[in-house]
Write a structure and sequence with these properties.
Order of helices and strands of chain C: HHHHHH
Largest sheet of chain A: 2 strands, parallel
Chains: A alpha/beta, B alpha+beta, C mainly alpha
Radius of gyration of chain A: 19 Å
Strand content of chain A: 5-15%
Strand content of chain C: under 5%
CATH class of chain C: Mainly Alpha
Radius of gyration of chain C: 16 Å
Distance between the termini of chain C: 45 Å
Number of strands of chain C: 0
Structural class of chain A: alpha/beta
Helix content of chain A: 40-55%
Number of helices of chain C: 6
Structural class of chain C: mainly alpha
Oligomer: heterotrimer
Number of helices of chain A: 11
Helix content of chain C: 55-70%
Largest sheet of chain C: none
Shape of chain A: globular
């Protein structure tokens, strides 16, 4: 098979002098500076896009989820057209021109998102994906044995609940709308949002009422 | 759904649709992924080739083929992507989970046939 | 038949269904250059100098050995360089000189 058995998705580059830029760092700078010199892109565009990226975090997605939990009409709009609902309710722009399908977890269905071919992820509403989402084990196995993958995250789905895996390959991105945990009837919308972590919107764990917010 | 609305309305006024303007497959139809083996760039994973599923929805609007997009086509030749549901047991003969588990994925029109 | 067809017919990123280890829940904060690289990708796509699908295709074209041994953003910047050369936007000499 073309894929090497040992895919080294090292989180860090080679060991070296921390003050000197590495080989690829230098390459990025060179490419960027040449493109700017040739007036194909602007330095301000890169700076601005970094700010865009920094503004998109799981906290945004958590607000969307919490609103859907407390507002049934918004929930319906979100499930009908995820992108439009996020744009209109929260002003979340889809700068990468992707669509969004929001997947509702219920007592009958549990959803899980993956991109087997690369790393497609709902970046406009969740920010950048974690390394494990982009690495071989998750991408290779989420589509063959989703229940075993979920179990590795500590999530056991009973047999009478269907598991649906969504493999992104084109212009549609997915966001899991996790189930609202029990005993949260008196929580404010802000308190509800604080419960919703990134991994609950990927679908690998459920939302729980816990003192520590896990990432 | 927008495209169906256009059809029903258009028919009343004698509107004829351009070739490739309408989706070929509709929600609920049974389809099979072709077993084509392209070189250099594809977005239909090998694990789905030849598998049978049901169209869940048509992705609107029509869009560029991502296999062409990978080589620089940014506009033109737009066809539809379809969100297709595959039972896990259809994809993996030895699937160990529930028989009701499923996989959903977007597939371009050029990769599907009606069964 | 040389027995090498599988290297050609299956892209190095097409790994759904292949064997794999347990999931290590690793993550890291992006280095500044990695974030700049991601921003560069978005800006290149906006201008359609290199669209997102061209980027994916460029990463695939690195081949299995590079895909396995370069990190995520290292793959991107090398792919961008290759694509910019092919499109005659940059030349290898230009980039080599700028790299210093």
């Amino acid at each position: 098979m073309a894929a090497s058995p040992h895919e080294h998705d090292h989180p860090h580059a080679k060991i070296g002098d921390a003050d000197r830029p590495g080989y690829y760092d230098i390459m990025e700078t060179a490419v960027r500076e040449l493109l700017i010199e040739k007036k194909l892109i602007g330095a301000d565009e890169i700076r601005r896009q970094i700010e865009v990226l920094d503004s998109r975090t799981p906290a945004l997605g958590a607000k969307v989820v919490a609103r859907a939990w407390v507002d049934p009409a918004f929930r319906a709009r979100l499930l009908a057209n995820g992108r439009r609902a996020c744009e209109e309710e929260f002003g979340i722009s889809f700068y990468d021109d992707t669509q969004l399908i929001v997947l509702e977890n219920t007592d009958r269905v549990h959803n899980l998102i993956v991109c087997t071919l690369c790393s497609c992820y709902p970046r406009p509403v969740l920010g950048l994906p974690p390394d494990w989402y982009k690495a071989r084990p998750y991408r290779a196995r989420a589509v063959t044995e989703p229940r075993a993958v979920l179990a590795e995250f500590g999530t056991i789905i009973p047999d009478d609940v269907d598991v649906r895996v969504h493999d992104s390959t084109a212009m549609v991105r997915y966001l899991v709308l996790p189930r609202r945990p029990e005993a949260t009837e008196n929580f404010t919308e802000e308190e509800l949002a604080a419960l919703v972590t990134r991994d609950t919107m990927i679908g690998v764990v459920p939302v729980t009422v816990s003192k520590e917010a896990k990432k | 759904m927008r495209t169906e609305f256009r059809e029903a309305t258009g028919a009343r006024y004698g509107v004829v649709y351009a070739a490739n303007e309408q989706p070929v497959f509709r929600p609920g139809e049974s389809v099979r992924v072709l077993t084509r083996i392209p070189l250099a760039h594809y977005r239909v994973p090998t694990y789905l080739r030849g598998k049978r599923g049901v169209v869940d929805r048509v992705i609107d609007p029509a869009a560029v083929d991502n296999e062409e997009e990978g080589f620089g086509r940014n506009v033109g030749n737009r066809l539809y992507y379809y969100r297709v549901a595959f039972p896990m047991r259809e994809i993996w003969a030895d699937y160990a989970g529930s028989q009701r588990d499923a996989l959903y994925i977007e597939i371009y029109e050029t990769w599907l046939e009606r069964i | 038949m040389t027995g090498s067809e599988h290297l050609v017919t299956r892209l190095p990123n097409d790994i759904g269904g292949l064997s794999a280890d347990r999931i290590e829940q690793i993550d890291h904060e992006l280095a500044p250059w990695e974030k700049r690289c991601h921003a560069l990708a978005d800006v290149l796509d906006f201008h359609k100098i290199i669209n997102t699908e061209e980027k994916r295709c460029g990463v695939e074209a690195l081949g299995a050995e590079m895909v396995a041994n370069l990190t995520y953003y290292e793959r991107w910047i090398v792919a961008f360089s290759n694509i910019l050369f092919r499109k005659r936007i940059l030349t290898p000499t230009e980039l080599a000189k700028k790299n210093g």
